[in-house]
Design brief:
The chain has 243 residues and is of the alpha/beta class. It has 8 helices and 8 strands, in the order E-H-E-H-E-H-E-H-E-H-H-E-H-E-E-H. It has an 8-stranded mixed β-sheet with strand order 3-2-1-4-5-6-7-8, sandwiched between helices. Strand 6, helix 7 and strand 7 form a beta-alpha-beta unit. The radius of gyration is 16 Å and the shape is globular. Bound molecules: NADP nicotinamide-adenine-dinucleotide phosphate (NAP). NADP nicotinamide-adenine-dinucleotide phosphate (NAP) binds next to helix 1.
Length: 243
């Protein structure tokens, strides 16, 4: 049995991954944006161990959340799932880029880290211009490239941890919309697999998966110089250094 923390698990792929992990006998701590959503999350998954509330568009709340996760003790895996698609650039950067960065930097390292990226990262800006702007900005594609860069940076800096990124496919959640063509089941099974499986194919690090298979990604994310620059900019914005 593994113990897993999942951000953004009041709905969508986070909620579905939580349900499946619990069904398979694991212990899950949920997260939602506020107390009301936290209550809804635990009402929908009463078997969850706990639920934490924090609005990830607010950097001070992200830091408080990290402290609250640490207070619950060690986790085997963390799934950085919460995300926004249609929002101001400053909100996208906080929720999609800085929340995974801060939580990864502050939470005691689990054995496995999983970052929800997207096929749309392929058109993200590898120059990181928006991230360096004042105030920082990101398009959705930029932010999903950031998630991939972060996964690869973590994999390089913490070789004892399995850190990987996922494209779940375009699937019918609140974000994906009802007309999304992808398979919803396949959209969360890779996260569950990477979080718990002992398959050799899941015990890898610094990779990018789609439906449990390694997939094509923006190759610049492998550049250590880009990864280090990304970490440095995030540290400057948040005041949290990446260890
Ligand atoms: N669906 C797709 O087609 C697709 C494709 C590629 C990648 N992805 C990625 O997959 C992940 C999950 O997406 P999804 O499709 O499951 O989307 P979703 O149904 O919209 O769920 C997103 C989750 O993130 C939470 N969230 C959003 N803003 C937040 C904030 N400020 N503070 C705290 N929590 C916040 C949401 O909370 P509320 O429920 O309260 O809004 C929700 O639980 C995302 O990272 C997304 O980028 C999705």
């Amino acid at each position: 049995m593994a113990r897993i923390f999942i951000t953004g698990s009041a709905d969508g792929l986070g909620q579905l991954a939580a349900k499946e992990l619990i069904r398979q006998g694991n212990q899950v701590v949920l997260h939602a944006r506020n107390q009301q959503r936290a209550k809804e999350a635990i009402d929908r998954i009463p078997e969850a161990e706990n639920v934490l509330a924090a609005d990830l568009s607010d950097i001070s709340q992200i830091k408080r959340l990290a402290d609250e996760v640490n207070a619950l003790g060690n986790f085997d895996a963390i799934i950085h799932n919460a995300g926004v698609y249609q929002a101001a650039g400053s909100t996208i950067v906080n929720v999609n880029t800085l929340a995974p960065y801060i939580l990864t930097s502050m939470i005691d390292l689990p054995k496995r880290l999983i970052y929800l990226s997207s096929g749309m990262h392929l058109s993200g800006d590898p120059k990181l211009n928006g991230l360096e702007a004042v105030p920082p900005q990101a398009t959705y594609s930029d932010s999903k490239l950031h998630d991939l860069i972060l996964a690869k940076a973590v994999a390089r800096k913490h070789p004892t941890v399995y850190a990987n990124a996922i494209d779940p496919g375009w699937v019918p959640t609140k974000m994906g919309g009802q007309g999304a063509p992808g398979d919803l089941e396949q959209g969360f099974q890779t996260q569950v697999w990477l979080a718990t499986s002992e398959d050799a194919a899941a015990l890898v690090t610094g990779r990018y998966f789609h439906h449990k298979q390694e997939a094509r990604y923006q190759l610049q994310s492998d550049e250590t110089e880009l990864q280090d620059r990304f970490l440095k900019i995030c540290a400057k914005i948040t005041g949290i250094s990446f260890l």
